[in-house]
Amino acid sequence: QSVLTQPSSVSEAPRQRVTISCSGSTSNIGKNAVYWYQQFPGKAPTLLIYYDDILPPGVSDRFSGSKSGTSASLAISGLQSEDEGDYYCAAWDDSLNVVVFGGGTKLTVL
Amino acid sequence: QVQLQESGPGLVKPSETLSLTCNVSGGSISTYYWTWLRQSPGKGLEYLGYVYYTGTTNYNPSLKSRVTMSVDTSKNQFSLKLSSLTAADTAVYYCARDQSSYGSGTFDIWGQGTKVSVSS
Prior knowledge:
In chain A, strands 1, 3, 4, 7, 8 and 9 form a 6-stranded mixed β-sheet that branches. Chain A is an all-beta fold. Chain A is 0% helix and 45% strand. By secondary structure, chain B is mainly beta. In chain B, the strands form 2 sheets. In chain B, strands 2, 4, 5, 6, 9, 10 and 11 form a 7-stranded mixed β-sheet that branches. In chain B, strands 1-3-8-7 form a 4-stranded antiparallel β-sheet, with no helix packed on it.
C-alpha cells in the first residue's frame, strides 16, 4: 500500500480535461511540497510539476497542479494521445523521513 | 546538459550485495542531492535515499540496515550498495538528481534505469 493514494486509472476523450487526485496526510502533503511525475512504458519518470504547481521548463502549460489541505490534483487539459502513460504524485513525509509516492495512475486517452 | 547513467550487474544471487554506480556527465556532482529509487515489476516507485555531495546520507528506514550510499567527487559519480538481497529486491533501479534545497523530492534529472534481477 502506498502512503499517497491515487486512482489506479483514469480515462477521457481527446481534447477533454482530466484530473488525477492524490490524497495524503498532515505529515506529507499537508506540510510539504507535492511533485508529479510522468512515466511512459520502459522509460524513466520525468518531472512534470514541482512545489505543488510549478512547471519545469519545457513542460506544456496543458498540465497544472494544485493543492488543498492534505490533497493535491494534477489537471491535464486538451488531452492528446501522447499524454497516455502513468502519473505519480510524491511528497516528503516528515514522519517517515523519506519521499513517499502514490501508487500511480494510468491515463488512457480514449 | 547534465546526464546520469547507471551501471552494474543485471543479475545478482540471493543473499549477495548489489553494487550500482551512477555516472554524472555534463555537470559537477559537487552540488545537489543525489538519489536512488527503484521500481519493482508492474509496481510503483520506491525512494531508497540520497547522498549529498558532502557525503551526508539519508536512507529509507525500510532498508536502513542494508543500504549504503557514497559519492566520489573526483570521479563525478555516486554509488549504491544493497546487501542481503532477496527476490523482493528485483527491480529497475534509477539514479536521479534532486535539485531541492533539502533533498525533499525535486527529481529533475533521471538516469535511464538499470534492471536488476535477484535469482540463483
